[in-house]
Amino acid sequence: MNHLLPDALARTLSSHLDLGKSRLETLSWLIIGLVNGRTVNLSHLASQCYSSAQLGSSYRRLQRFFQYVALEGDWLALVVVKLLKLKAPWVLCLDRTNWRIGRKDVNILMLALATRRLRIPLMWTVLDKPGSSNQAERIALMGRYLALFGAGSIAWLLADREFIGGRWMGFLLQNKILFAIRVKENSIIHFQDGRCEQLKALLRKPHGFKRLRSQPARLAALDESLGFPLFFAAKRLADGEFLIVASSGPAQKAVQVYRRRWQIECLFGDSKTRGFNMEDTRLTQPAKLSSLLVIITLAMAWAYATATAVKGAEPIKIRAHGYRAKSWFRLGFDQLRKWILHQPDKAAQVWQRIWPKRKPTLQSQRVV
Prior knowledge:
The chain has helices at 4-13, 21-37, 42-45, 55-68, 74-83, 135-149, 166-174, 199-203, 208-214, 251-258, 262-271, 286-311, 328-342, 344-354, and strands at 69-70, 90-101, 104-114, 119-127, 154-159, 179-183, 188-191, 196-198, 217-219, 231-236, 242-247, 365-366. The protein is an alpha+beta fold and 368 residues long. Helix 1 (4-13) packs parallel to helix 14, helix 2 (21-37) packs across helix 12 and helix 13 (328-342) crosses helix 14. The radius of gyration is 22 Å and the shape is elongated.
């Protein structure tokens, strides 16, 4: 049995995680099995283990890993930007994904980094409840990000209609974070001259689009002490609905950059049916789900690094329908799976090349 690949992963991870040899070996099996097996289901991953033990024993070993080890996500944000050589300032996307396991809701609030080629998780909060996140949860997540990278690392923060609220947007303004957040058509805004308008009604008036772009305003929910710090811009979509964006920066630029928010939807697709089938998991406890997200993120980084090794700076071909033949993730993911099966030395070389040099050991938290 060829242990070259799991040994290479374990050796590199030992520089960044305070785990014993057995736990590091199990973690490397999980990452390799996740890529090769395209599933997070532990009963399937057990068959991917590089071990002569019986399947039942391997399955129990994977279960014990999630039972006794919790991989905190914040250390990973620092590592990911080094792995993929990503230079700030970045476009960040905030969104939520959820599904059900029996009667249990799995609900993840995620902050992801999006570039022209890739989209990858940076931080997240596993919400132990169904439904939308509240303003305190969003502020706490952004606070964790700011503690590591600072507001200067953010080119834009993009979010959908779910992510509005006076306290939340006030937090972004006070921290000088440039954002573009979609707002609902029935939102009320206040102008400096004292007028109040419903966005949908305003846009149906002559020159409504121009008036909206040219005058600073504030949402009704925003604290009056902040003044009129927002700019609004709108675009009519093909179905007749309005795309209305509230921004702390140039209104027209906000509409253009907001299109990149779709990257996080593609990220969820990569982590689910197009990639790792995250919804196959039976894990429901927040700490265990967070550990699983760390493993998925490491596997994604490996796939992106593989795509770069294969294509370099060469672009992916555009087909007649105007879209790329493959996403950057899928290109690397497919090639990496082939290398794991037939050329594990190449897969190991890519993994070892992308990891930064040894730093002071980053602690993993053990579940008591």
